[in-house]
Specification:
This protein is mainly alpha-helical. It is about 30% helix and about 5% strand. The strands form two sheets. Strands 1-2-3 form a three-stranded antiparallel β-sheet, with helices on one face. Strand 1 and strand 2 form a beta hairpin.
């Protein structure tokens, strides 16, 4: 028997997402943010844009397990690690997350390890890697997040001595932001657009990194708002919006499979941190002065042992579009990550390095999987598990997969408000 809104299952289902669940952003600011998002002017060496690793062609991600940032070439799964003196020095330690619904009002924490959150720890509304050096005036959590990839060496800033942005960061992170803001505001078209879009900006010289971040947030939140999937229509009362197997998948997701324990609420995330025991690889992210090649998850932010190897629960709208899956992109398919949730130890034992989408970089390959040679580290990671085996049959897994595909938006995906610009004010190439 299929359960539909109005039956006993409806008590477990979230209420539908509505416009009221999202921050309202100014359209002129969003249009300006579109240009900035696709403009390489915000990278230290003017060779990579926000869109390079978060492209709509790849579900607002990049199709890679671990990204290729500064020094790379190409786009999406075809991106290369570069060569010669400009080749990448390190893989991005984490999978590039999708950008769907990041303008939701209830969001309070971002990044896989939660290193950005709403808090008054430093008197500027956020707990962040910049601590008290983070400026005030951001219009959202998403805007505060936008300034950090710009100053990350291996993402967008570049390596020391390559450019003035990377050089400034070596002293203190906030020293780079005025340099980037000046780069933007001295371009006449950008200067005019900022004056027109922001009431508190009277002249281009007033533009700061906060204004740039606010425009970027306005664009991302407006462009990638998704609440028109078949499941959203189902929640709104359309019992015909889901096929039979998708309805069975809903029943499993909110019942026997236990998925909604963590993927809860309207956004399908509890915004908390859980240890899934995903296969480890890559350079990882760890605590300051920790010499180990590993990823300790939220413990890198909190320094609390109980947070070790725990990562933030992702939201699930358009999850079908954002492969590979996991904080490090360990699994290439939705079915594989589902099966890992159902039996993490068995899937970990069966996992093979070829399942990771890592562009060839022979100078890095000796350390890509070196963590597996550290028996003590692997044993430590195996002791942290927040999920337990849940026996589902292959047909039930198929139904669960069908439900996850019912989370894919329709017009929000096919016809976003802005799209990819033909050109940007800097005149630099646009990733298309």
């Amino acid at each position: 028997m299929f359960l539909v809104p109005g039956t006993a299952l409806s008590a477990s289902l979230p209420s539908p997402l509505t416009e009221d669940d999202f921050i309202a952003f100014d359209r002129k600011q969003a249009a300006l943010g579109q240009l900035l998002f696709y403009d390489r002017i915000l990278s230290g060496n003017r060779n990579i844009a926000c869109a390079t690793c978060h492209h709509p062609r790849f579900g607002t991600s990049d199709g890679l397990s671990l990204g290729i940032g500064e020094g790379g070439a190409g786009l999406g799964p075809d991106r290369r690690a570069g060569d010669g003196a400009s080749r990448i020095q390190k893989r991005i330690p984490r999978n590039a997350p999708g950008l769907w619904n990041l303008g939701a009002k209830e969001l309070h924490t971002l990044f896989h390890d939660g290193r950005l959150s709403r808090a008054e720890t430093f008197g500027n509304e956020f707990n962040s890697p910049a601590e008290e050096w983070l400026p005030s005036g951001f219009n959202s959590l998403l805007a505060a997040q936008a300034v950090f990839p710009l100053t990350a060496q291996f993402e967008m800033a570049g390596n020391p001595k390559e450019n003035e942005v990377a050089g400034a960061i070596r002293d203190r992170v906030d020293n780079a932001w005025p340099i980037l803001a000046k780069r933007v505001r001295i371009i006449p078209e950008y200067g005019t657009l900022f004056v027109d879009a922001f009431n508190d900006i009277d002249r281009p010289e007033d533009v700061t990194i906060v204004d740039i971040a606010n425009a970027l947030a306005a664009f991302q939140a407006s462009e990638w708002r998704s609440m028109d999937s078949p499941f959203d229509r189902y929640l709104a009362g359309d019992a015909t919006a889901l096929a039979a197997d998708q309805k069975r998948g809903v029943d499993l997701f909110y019942g026997k499979a236990g998925c909604s324990t963590c993927h809860s609420g309207k956004l399908l995330s509890d915004q908390k941190f859980h240890a899934l025991g995903l296969p480890p690889f890559g350079p990882g992210r760890t605590r300051t002065f920790d010499p180990m090649v590993r990823d300790v998850g939220a413990m890198g932010e909190t320094d609390r042992l109980e947070d070790a190897y725990r990562f933030r629960t992702p939201m699930l709208r358009n999850v079908e579009l954002t492969a590979p899956y996991g904080h490090n992109g360990a699994y290439p398919t939705l079915e594989a990550i589902i099966r890992h949730h159902l039996d993490p130890d068995a899937m970990l034992s069966a996992w093979q390095p070829h399942m990771a989408a890592l562009p060839d970089a022979p100078w890095l390959s000796p350390i890509d999987f070196i963590v597996w040679n550290d028996a003590r580290e692997i044993a430590r990671q195996s002791r942290f598990r927040d999920i337990r085996p849940a026996p589902l049959s292959d047909p039930e897994i198929s139904d669960l997969l069908a439900f996850l595909k019912a989370l894919t938006g329709t017009s929000s995906v096919s016809s976003p408000p802005f799209g990819i610009p033909d050109a940007v004010p800097s005149g630099l190439p646009v990733d298309r």
